[in-house]
Amino acid sequence: MINVLIADDQGMIRAGLRSLLEQDSEICVVGEAADGLDAVTCARRMSPDVVLMDIRMPELDGIEATRRLLSERRETRVLMLTTFDLDEYVFDALRAGASGFLLKDAPAEDLVDAVHVLARGDALLAPAVTRRVIELFATTPVPTAPRELALLSPRELEVLRLLATGRSNAEIAENLFVSDATVKTHVSSVLSKLGIRDRVQAVIYAYEAGLVRPG
């Protein structure tokens, strides 16, 4: 069972999301929060697997709420809910640790699928969001590579570079002439050595470290 917490300052939105999610027998909505502070408190008490987090909320916005929540519960996945696919706060939310983005007007099946994706430990980014992140890095000076990169083997560095270009495990396996299982092992090792949560955070890390550049 996937335990989900819904955080949104609009009661009708929360009710709608709950109704959609509860149609799936594998999802249980354990609670609702009307603002960021309430979301952090509820997550602390309810230990959800996935939190649907609105970006703009009173008391504490969704970005800071995500940062605080994940500082206490690294295993929880946060799916940011936004009205616009190019929301101005996309990058800040990803830096705070969000594992994915979803538009509020997305089809019901997309919402349910997204919860399952995050619950598996994977990440979810719409192409438009990915483009925005890359565009931001295109205007950022190349930084000094962090020391953690030295912990990675040459093959793990290759895997991280390919992850950062948006390739799936199957595509990485084909590129490196190895099995999907081997790629999965490498990805897990990269995340563990760098102390990052998922593929989205790996992409951000690779760009910030200067390991890859847009284009």
TrEMBL record:
Keyword Phosphoprotein set for record: yes
InterPro entries assigned: CheY-like_superfamily, NreC/VraR/RcsB-like_REC, Sig_transdc_resp-reg_C-effctor, Sig_transdc_resp-reg_receiver, Tscrpt_reg_LuxR_C, WalR-like
The protein's name: Response regulator transcription factor
Gene3D superfamilies: 3.40.50.2300
Every Response regulatory domain range: 3-119
Residue ranges annotated for the HTH luxR-type domain, each copy included: 145-210
A Pfam family annotated for this UniProt entry: GerE
Key word Transcription present: yes
Alphabetical keyword list: DNA-binding, Phosphoprotein, Transcription, Transcription regulation
Source species of the chain: Nocardioides bizhenqiangii
Residues annotated with 4-aspartylphosphate modification: 54
Superkingdom of source: Bacteria
